[in-house]
Write a structure and sequence with these properties.
By secondary structure, this protein is of the alpha+beta class. 34% of the residues lie in helices and 22% in strands.
Amino acid sequence: MKKRTIWISSAAAGAALVLGGTAIAFATTDGFAPGGEPPETSDDGGHLTGSDLDAASAAALEAAGPGTVVEAEVGDDGQSAYEVEVRLDTGESVEVRLDASFGVIDVTGEDDGGAGDDGSGSDD
């Protein structure tokens, strides 16, 4: 009976190590994304990290106005190098498309006529 308890405990500990290692691997990478991408970005629309994220965020906030960067990724439209989604302090969301040197290509919003609302009558 004692050997059986030791065997079950050992199997449970081994499974916990394997599952814990897998969880850490997925948390520190893009999960199933193929390897070999540069560390700053992943190709095909991957999220920006590091200095690319910092530069794209700064350029987007300067172009869009005060707010919070919600998402920043490599451009997938064939025209822009980076796409940054910003939630403005007014509650509106805008997308800022940037070229490879973080110059602004354009800024588009969910609501193109976004002047005058102070957030008191916003939709869901």
